[in-house]
Amino acid sequence: MIEEKQSLLNKLDELKSRYDEIQSKIEDPEIASDHNKMIALAKEQGKLKKVVSLYEQYNQAKEGIGEAQEILNDESSDEDFRVLAEQELEKLEPQQAQLMEQLQDTLVMADDEAINSVIVEIRPGTGGEEAAIFAKDLYGMYAKYAENRGWKVEPLSFRDSDHGGFREVIFNVSGPGVWAELGYESGGHRVQRVPETESQGRVHTSAATVAVLPEPEEIDIEIDPNDVLEHVSRSGGPGGQSVNKLNSAIKLEHTPTGITVSMRDEKSQHKNRSKAWRILKSRIYEHFESQKRLERDSQRKSLIGSGDRSQKIRTYNFPQNRMTDHRINLSLYSLDKIIAGDLSEVIEALQEHDKQQRLENL
Fold first, then answer.
1. Beta strand 259-263 with 312-317: parallel, antiparallel or unpaired?
2. Which of 32, 66, 182, 330 has the most CB atoms around its CB within 10 Å?
3. Going by DSSP bridges, is the β-strand pair 312-317/187-193 parallel, antiparallel, or unpaired?
4. Rounded (5°) CA angle 118-121-122
5. What is the pTM for the complete model shown?
6. What share of the chain is helix, strand, coil (3-state, %, to 5)?
7. Is residue 45 a contact partner of residue 22, using CB atoms and an 8 Å limit?
8. Are residues 207 and 187 in contact, defined by beta-carbon separation less than 8 angstroms?
9. Can you tell me the distance from the alpha carbon of 207 to that of 132, in angstroms, rounded to the nearest whole number?
10. 179: phi then psi, degrees, rounded to nearest 5
11. Domains of the chain from N-terminus onward
């Protein structure tokens, strides 16, 4: 425990040094004249500010505790001073412990907290039309959760199925800390229930896949336009003749990674291109971030952002009103509330589990 704490304090010392180094660079007139460098430095400093501020408070409390203990250890100290020192210890020791807990939380979760925009992609898996309806239910669940959190939901691409479900749905969710909460949703989701079309009352098992991709800011990712091939074609499917006559459908292909995005929802070629680029950037960003995580965390598999869509992460059992998250062996018998958007209990449990893993691997 002492070694773990010392390791944490060493890491905090490194971050404080880096924060001070950035401040020196920002005050350097030569660097201050370079707009791009200043933006990058200000952004990095902004990410460090909260943890450094907490660390300074922690050190102040530690210093105060040391001074109070010196007075108590000095037998020649005046009695009034000793009483004040005891009162100071009673106040500062729990404060120091609380600050250490906040530092741990902030240190291991800060990068995730800083991402305030994600793109969510939901697609039906096995189960035919029932899987498509389940995909729509999942979209409704996330949209309601986002609404409850005060986040903004922006539809990007919806492809309807024949019986009211979704063949595919892609949407953006933006708001404070959105990645730190929704980042755990990537993977395979399975539903067990009696479909509306089932006349025998038999329980069917269907599946859908969810991918949650952090939407990078412009500064986070640079894509060479020469690496992206653009294909323009006529939009097919629903939308009427006015859509089909125009070359408005856009397909982007990033040749180094082979990642492709097709967008045909809008009548406007410009709007389709804009949406396609947003999705492409998110997929490329997540592609390279996943590679970095594999290199950094070769001994473990992080829960958040693993993006493994083949991994079954959760089962929604309607007959038992049960939701089970298989990664942490958590079963909640409140599926009706969860599917209506009350995901807070499961997300908090996943965050706590993830935080403990990160602290162990700090």
1. unpaired
2. 182
3. parallel
4. 140
5. 0.73
6. 55, 20, 25
7. yes
8. no
9. 9
10. -70, -35
11. 2-113 (1.20.58), 117-217+301-360 (3.30.70.1660), 225-294 (3.30.160.20)
DSSP state string for 45-103: HHHHHHHHHHHHHHHHHHHHHHHHHHHHH-TTS-HHHHHHHHHHHHHHHHHHHHHHHHH
Helix/strand number for the chain, H first, E second: 10, 11
- What residue type is 251 in one-letter code? K
4 pLDDT tier (thresholds 50, 70, 90): low
Structure tokens at 36: 């791009």
Sign (positive or negative) of CA dihedral 5, 6, 10, 13 = positive
| Structure token digits, residue 187 | 């993977």
Q: Between helices 35-73 and 79-113, what is the axis angle to 10°? A: 150
Token digits for 250? 């856009």
Parallel, antiparallel, or unpaired: how do β-strands 166-174 and 117-124 relate? antiparallel
pLDDT at 102: 86
Distance separating alpha carbons of residues 293 and 48, to the nearest angstrom: 20
Which letter does DSSP use for residue 340 in this model? Answer: T
Both tokens of residue 97?
């412990």
Nearest alpha carbon to residue 232 among 280, 269, 276: 269
Q: What percent of the chain is modeled with pLDDT above 90?
A: 43
Q: How far is CA 216 from CA 74, 116, 350, in A?
A: 57, 9, 23
- Torsion angles phi and psi, residue 232, rounded to 5: -115, 135
- Residue 169, beta-bridge partner list: 122, 158
> Both tokens of residue 283?
């997929």
- Across the beta sheet with 330-332, what order do the strands follow? 152-160, 166-174, 117-124, 204-214, 187-193, 312-317, 322-325, 330-332
Residue 301: pLDDT over 80: no
From CA 153, how far away is CA 143, in angstroms rounded? 7
Neighbours of 4 (CB within 10 A): 12
Provide DSSP, 199-237. Answer: SS---EEEEEEEEEEE---GGG----GGGEEEEEE---S
Q: What single-letter amino acid sits at 96? A: Q
